[in-house]
Design goal:
With about 500 residues, the protein is of the alpha/beta class. It has 3 domains: about 5-185, 3-Layer(aba) Sandwich (Rossmann fold), CATH 3.40.50; about 195-380, Rossmann fold, CATH 3.40.50; about 400-495, GMP Synthetase, Chain A, domain 3 (2-Layer Sandwich). The protein has helices at about 15-25, 80-85, 175-185, 195-210, 225-235, 255-265, 275-285, 290-310, 325, 330-335, 345-350, 365-370, 375-380, 400-420, 470-485, and strands at about 5-10, 30-35, 45-50, 75-80, 90-105, 110, 125-135, 140-145, 155, 160-165, 215-220, 240-245, 270-275, 315-320, 355, 430-440, 445-460, 465, 490-495. Strand 1, helix 1 and strand 2 form a beta-alpha-beta unit. Helix 4 packs across helix 5 and helix 14 (about 400-420) runs antiparallel to helix 15.
Length: about 500
């Protein structure tokens, strides 16, 4: 039986980070809404309560009962989770005099406590809260303090129940992983047998049982997720998988041919469809980015549906949906942030059953599975690329001429990142065609041509991102090459906006 840590999500932005840190300890975990604990699941070995945007004393604060969990399984509360357990057991939580945010140090802690074993004196932790625990229940004991926070961590006397006011899951908590290892491995008893190899073995067996001799169709995008899903399915069902790769005309330069070649080398049964003329016709004159996305989304569904119906007896639609897409916010906040289907509407339109073999994996785990499957590094390390492609990197209306200009500028930028050994240091990069023209001089002639912006960011999960500090001599070379080699461009800018407040993509 696969051991499991359950993370109860109270709505924190870092809940997924907790999940990733637990998975990095080779331990399987699932994130579920705070009020959906699987009481009848015998594979659960421990419980973590996440942070939350609410205060525990708010009327709208998320509350649940630990009955049936407390005393049976080890529990760790993080930030709101710690405040919740203290508050509901008779402790006091009050607004802090000032918001406690940023680096802090554990000036005092019980080094003999199993949760804090191996931590160094004055170890750095990350605080992010507007409330603080001012008193703990009579049967709780303080096990760590900072110079400003008396109750930085506590344990219930004689119980496997802990709370920490700081966030061990974030990188700024220097020994956060050690603390989580103490809880997950030493306290909960994880065997640490969750790995890419074990995932492939169990998933291939499950796919064979789920699909039998049924035929499956999968829409490839050229990205990491759909590519790994295809190779995994191919390992399980072979010739019964048919992949469809649609070119909507807004892929990167030569990407359609290059990706098709990669897929054929992997032994996949792939149908390539050049539908660019259809998409350009539908997009003519459209400038609103949301309309662009909807037109491309609907166009993809129509083309995919048409091609899939040429294949007889298909019963399943496979998608490269991954775990962050599947974590439902609906049960927690009452609203859905985004649909988790990669190709919204296709399963219903085609009357097919849905197969999502990667739905339990985070992005870094998808890459690990790809490596274990023997996929080439250039496919595994590909930067994220928007589904609508260059359509949302051309500000204003879309024309084949604009796409060609952007493809050439983008190709110079991305190729240079690879040549200079910078590609793997960047999370995502690309060129954006701006809806402005500027004056320039080429030779003895005055020019009035397009401006291109370059965008490159560093990130670990795309939730936040910083602009990549690329070398000046690299930027000078790229700018010079674009202006000299791409007809119609006479100015290159570099976007130095971070996320937040900006987003990674411009549209």
């Amino acid at each position: 039986m696969q051991q499991k840590i359950i993370i109860l999500d109270f709505g924190s932005q870092t809940t997924q980070l907790i999940g990733r840190r637990v998975r990095e300890l080779n331990t399987y975990c699932e994130i579920v809404p705070y009020n959906k604990f699987p009481h009848d699941d015998p594979s659960v070995i421990g419980v973590i309560l996440s942070g939350s945007p609410f205060s525990v004393y708010d009327e709208k604060a998320f509350r649940m009962s630990l009955d049936g969990i407390r005393g049976r399984l080890p529990i760790l509360g993080i930030c709101y989770g710690a405040q919740f357990m203290a508050y509901t057991n008779g402790g006091t939580v009050e607004p802090a005099g000032t918001r406690e945010y940023g680096r802090a140090h554990l000036e005092k802690f019980d080094a003999a406590n199993p949760l804090l074993k191996g931590l160094e004196p004055s170890t750095q932790v990350w605080m992010s809260h507007g409330d603080t625990i001012t008193s703990i229940p009579s049967n709780f004991k303080i096990i760590a303090s900072t110079d400003k926070v008396a109750v930085a961590a506590y344990q219930a006397e004689g119980e496997q129940l802990w709370g920490v006011q700081f966030h061990p899951e974030v990188y700024h908590s220097v020994q956060g992983t050690e603390l989580l290892r103490n809880f997950v491995v030493d306290i909960c008893g994880s065997r640490q047998d969750w790995s890419a190899a074990s995932f492939i073995e169990s998933t291939v067996a499950a796919l064979k049982e789920q699909l039998g001799d049924d035929k499956v169709v999968l829409g490839l995008s050229g990205g990491v997720d759909s590519s790994v899903a295809a190779v995994l399915l191919n390992k399980a069902i072979g010739k019964n998988l048919t992949c469809i790769f649609v070119d909507h005309g807004m892929l990167r330069k030569n990407e359609f041919a290059n990706v098709l070649h990669d897929y054929e080398c992997l032994g996949l049964n792939v149908i390539g469809v050049d539908a660019s003329a259809e998409f350009f016709a539908e997009l003519a004159g459209v400038t609103d980015p949301e309309r662009k996305r909807k037109i491309i989304g609907k166009g993809f569904i129509d083309v995919f549906d048409r091609e899939a119906h040429k294949i007889k007896d298909v019963k399943w639609l496979a998608q490269g949906t991954i775990y962050p897409d599947c974590i439902e916010s609906l049960s927690i906040t009452g609203t859905t942030i985004k649909s988790h289907h990669n190709v919204g509407g296709l399963p219903e339109k085609m009357n097919l059953k849905l197969c999502e073999p990667l739905r339990l994996l985070f992005k870094d785990e998808v890459r690990a599975v790809g490596r274990e499957l023997g996929m080439p590094e250039h496919l595994i390390k590909r930067h994220p690329f928007p589904g609508p492609g260059l359509a949302v990197r051309i500000l204003g209306d879309i024309t084949p001429e604009k796409v060609a200009v952007l493809q050439n500028a983008d190709d110079i930028f991305i190729s240079a990142l690879r040549e200079w050994g910078l590609y793997d240091q960047v999370w995502q990069a690309g060129a954006i065609l701006l809806p402005v023209q500027s004056v320039g001089v080429m030779g003895d002639e005055r020019t009035y041509e397009r401006a291109v912006a370059l965008r490159a960011v560093t990130s670990t999960d795309a939730m936040t991102a910083d602009w990549a500090h690329l070398p000046y001599d690299f930027m000078a070379k790229v700018s010079n090459d674009i202006i000299n080699k791409v007809k119609g461009v006479n100015r290159v800018c570099y976007d130095i906006s971070s996320k937040p407040p900006a987003t990674i993509e411009w549209e």
